User: Fold Extracellular solute-binding protein from Paenibacillus hemerocallicola.
Amino acid sequence: MRKSNRLMNASKVCRKSGAVMLLLPVFLLGACEAASERVAQEAESSGSLSGAPHRGAEAPGNGGRGSRDYVRYDPPVTLTTIRVNEPGMKFAPGDSYNNNPWTRAYEKQLGIRVETLWSDDGGQYNRKLDLMIASGDIPDFFRVNGAQLQQLAESGLIADLTDVYAANVSDRAKKLLDDRGPEPISLATIDGRLMAIPWTSTLTEAASVLHVRTDWLKKLNLPEPRSIGDVLTISSAFTASDPDGNGIRDTYGLALDRNFNLAAGFFNGLHAYRNIWIESGKELAYGTVQPEMKEALALLREMYASGQIDPDFGIKDEAGVYESIAFGKIGMFYGSPFAGSFPLQQAKKRDPSMEWKAYPLPSVDDRKARPQVPLDVSGYWVVSKEAKQPEALLRLLDFWIETYYENDSEESYYEFNQSRDNNPVWKMAVVSLAKQYKNVDESLRIIEAMETKDRSGLNPEDKGVLQRIETYLRDGGADGWMWNYMFSKGGSLSVADYYRRNDLYQRERFTSLPLPITQRKSEALGRLQSETFTKIVVGLLPVEEFDRFAEQWKSAGGREMTDEVNEWYRKRGSSLHK
Assistant:
């Protein structure tokens, strides 16, 4: 099959890479792509939940429902939960998940004692929770993924929250959820009944940007990336022109990992969308098997063949690729705006001469590239049907919103948000909801304060970030670099703001809990995809094999899956996205 003109023009740049490295690719089995569904799940088991509530005497703030905020249980009630271990957080001496600033505040101000039954790392947590669900012995409230929510609802183990939510949700919590549109609540609704509170995330503001080593750009007199053609030119030079000056051809132009997670932004620049459902006329189509993906894989294949991609990418996960970035071996990668924190902060500490800049996704043509964004719901809060006060979950969530987002007390900020020694105390909270553009909005406030010299609109967290930026700009050093990289004008969060202002997102259009056929078929189809993509890129299969893969995908269950998704779309989905 002939390439389109735009692909032929773009690929010419790839061929101008100077000496071509002879690569002997090893047979690579693509790793099964587990959907990295972050599900920190917290739960509570049976407890004596009696006691007449009264208003807490020391409740902070005046929330949306006035005196109904922080209604205190007296005597206190005990709720049980389970937790995912939080990375990067440490407890003060004597503290634990059962005894920390947040749990002490819950008891003092809400009359709610929280008992964590156990905690574990993410994967093991899900396995242990699945066993609890199978046994029917579940905690009082906890966080689950979509499949677990369905299982719990079908087995009758969780409470119907429809009336509880209508009677008890605070104005601030309702606004936070309603600001996302109808999808979050719809996702948590089964057969017309609200069975969970959606755990909203910041995945939209984390949409992919292109991170580029600008010190290498300057050294090699290269343009900033405005198009896919520019990306290919830069990648070729970063590979062949010795940007690190060591006289050895040991650098790579573009990062790629074995699961192709770091390729999302590159794919999007060619209007290809992997692992999401997109609108195609009046129906939905799976982005992975569309023709644009073939063009993107063809370019990656050429880049790999000319040495611009690490030949070991097929055995490296994202952590392994980030290590190569930190060691100065890769000059460009697609990733979240928060890559300034990791891996770039570590890279900067190792080599202070490194300079990076984040750019909007370059496009292959005159259409703007749209970064793909998944569902902005990372899980669901559920309540056991045995819990006698299911509304307690909503009180905990309301307390989180005011304490984390609306607090203007510096003392409270250091106690509940980020300690003076930069410990993320907020991770100790047992429940949370995220504002969609929390960090983008913070960046805008900081930029305005820097330009106007007026800090009156800053909250304690903003002031802390601004202080780190100003210290970095004044004194240098690596410690404050990441804050400047992300939050200052022209930083990575400015790119995220550009996406928001121009609504430059390719959103997942299948906004439903997992459907039966999808649950049965997606794992095997994911393996087929991963193996085929890897073999095409390393040259073990011709590019034309993509067409056979697309047909295999359909015959192995993809066609059934597409029919199932479009049946949902005709019934409910199209109305959600009007």
